[in-house]
Amino acid sequence: MDVSYVTSIIGFILQGTGITMKVYVVTIVCSIPLGILFALGKLCPFRPLQYLLAAYTWVFRGTPLLLQLFFAYYGLPVFGIEFQPLMAAYVTFVLNYAAYFTEIFRAGIQSIEVGQYEASKALGMNYLQTMRRIILPQATKVILPPMGNEAINLVKDTALCAALSIPEILRNAKVTVARDFSIEAYFVAAVLYLLLTFVIIRVFRELEKRYGYYN
Amino acid sequence: MEIIRIENIHKRFGDLEVLKGIDFVANKGEVITIIGSSGSGKSTLLRCMNHLEKADQGRIHCDCRIGMVFQNFNLFPHKSVIENLIEAPIIVKKIPRQQAIEFSMGLLAKVGLTDKRDAYPCQLSGGQKQRVAIARALAMEPQLMLFDEPTSALDPQLIGEVLQVMKKLAEEHMTMIVVTHEMNFAREVSDRVIYMDNGVIVVDGPPEEVLVDPKIPELRTFLNLDR
Ligand SMILES: Nc1ncnc2c1ncn2[C@@H]1O[C@H](COP(=O)(O)OP(=O)(O)O)[C@@H](O)[C@H]1O
Ligand SMILES: [Mg+2]
Asked: What is the number of the ligand 1 atom nearest to the C-alpha of B199?
């Protein structure tokens, strides 16, 4: 491999890393709170809300993310909603990942025994206090492994943004390959994805360690 | 002085009527044990008293704070012993943290677990867990303590330490309603024994009357007196 060639293309692909990380951070920051909210909604006894959220998670988990991206960018203008490509990606990724997080949080919250709710209530705590101080901290420990999986999936899913010509890692690599008739750019992209997932894996290992202080 | 008055409580789960009209009064400082076979509605009655279950019919008069101790402890596993104790006082009663810690350390001393203040529930024996659970309930300064089979989940050799703590509470004139199968505790510590069967209170009287040579055949069978 030609080192000087790789050095010459790396700056361009690194620019793509910036966009990739933007999509990543926006998705995580918005979809986690949304997921918690939707999970609590799914667990509340109001039936219509349950059905609505069930339909939501079914649609977003039951269709390809790429199709959802196309729909947001090419389909919504038919209904008078137009997004810039990056905005279409933000909206789609947030709603898609929030659907997965909803199910993960719901299962995590449901895994906590009723005795914890009863003890909290017997001590005079209300619903919000019980959730915030007793249930969610314990659910967090339970959901860390599946959340870690999703966090790694998201790194790779950001590559789908290339389909909307958003200049992220894969798109920039592809442009470089097409221009120079040389596949080194794909290797550079692969290394960048591996570095990103490596960081995510370490973050989750650290989080699991931090929550490992009790059984 | 009345601490809690219960009038004509009915509770059903689907087709099953679990409480069929319960009346009773607990006075300040009284220790009442409730006995009866499994499924007779003892837990449901306690849970109606502190509104973990909603009675279908009847009234519960109680202006006081009620503490509860569960068979399975229900300690908060992600919190240390001292954090288990101070959580509700800080969150619910808005007591300053330092003050809550000082008060709770006194309670840990009372249940003999001062040295476990920073341990987590998973590091404790069953008897220690239940003593922490008692201290946690006391941290809210209740006027009435409910115990739902507090020793039933314990290895036999650990039952004594929990009963000891409860006995000490009784001596300090805490009002207590205790569902238990520990007949010695019922006989020695309680002022009144209530025998429940099939969702009704069958007998309510002093322990010597209820536990020693009672007349009711079901109670005699329950106490194994006719063998
Ligand atoms: N949440 C519930 N749903 C349905 N049935 C219940 C529920 N809780 C208790 N029961 C039933 O009510 C009856 C009385 O239960 P319980 O009050 O726990 O009795 P005890 O504590 O005397 O053993 C039992 O038959 C039990 O199966
Ligand atoms: Mg019971």
From this structure: 14
